[in-house]
Amino acid sequence: MKLLLTLLLWVNFAGTPDLATIRKMYSDVAKSETNAKEFTEKLSGISSNDEKILVAYKAASILLDSKFESILGSKISRFKEGAKLLEATLKSDPNNIEIRMIRLSIQEDVPGITGYKKNIKEDKKFITTHYAELTGALKEYIKDFVLQSKSFSDKEKQFVK
Questions:
Q1: What is the pLDDT of residues 15-45, one digit of tens each?
Q2: What whole-number distance in Å separates Cα of residue 75 and Cα of residue 110?
Q3: Cα–Cα dist 53/18, whole Å
Q4: With 60 as the cut, is the pLDDT of residue 61 above it?
């Protein structure tokens, strides 16, 4: 009985990915198809009822994974699915700086033909305005993103230093 209970608890906790692990994986996810697939798999159990930040990362995983679809129809369908989920998540939590960072990171890398580049200025402004309010690991994470982001000029990056 104890073994069964332990196993059930382990499966329950193993099912929800750790946010620190997800953040670490996200930094490298666009570097290869393998990274993208691992990231997508890690978030496959997340539903829209889960913690909003995890849902936003799941949306990003769908968007990033769509890049590696070989069939154009599937590529477009997955992209739309991910964008719709990310926008719905941001709509439910519009003041979440990490979700804004996720959207910015996606929009700065997608091809212009997708039409999904319209919030870059808005998200940059939100991040620069609210960055000073952050503390701890999230502040460092956002700082690392800004410093490598192609959306911020060298002059604009000064606010995180």
A1: 678 999 999 999 999 889 999 999 999 999 9
A2: 13
A3: 11
A4: yes
Tell me the C-alpha distance between 101 and 80, whole Å.
19
- Dist CA 154 CA 136 (whole Å): 24
- What angle (nearest 5°) sits at the alpha carbon of residue 121, between those of residues 64 and 119? 45
Reference 99, options 81, 86, 118; nearest CA is: 86
**Residue of 78, 37, 43 lying closest to 57 (CA atoms):** 43
Distances (CA, A) of 92 to 51, 96, 99, 101: 11, 9, 11, 15
| 3-state SS assignment for residue 25 | helix
pLDDT, one tens digit per residue, over 109-147 is 999 999 999 999 999 999 999 999 999 999 999 999 999
- Rounded distance between C-alpha atoms, residue 124 and residue 103, angstroms: 10
pTM, full prediction:
0.89
Q: 64 to each of 1, 29, 76, 134, how far by Cα in Å?
A: 42, 8, 12, 27
Which residues are CB-contacts of 101 (< 8 A; sequence separation ≥ 6)?
123, 127, 142, 145
Does residue 128 contact residue 100 with C-beta atoms inside 8 Å? no
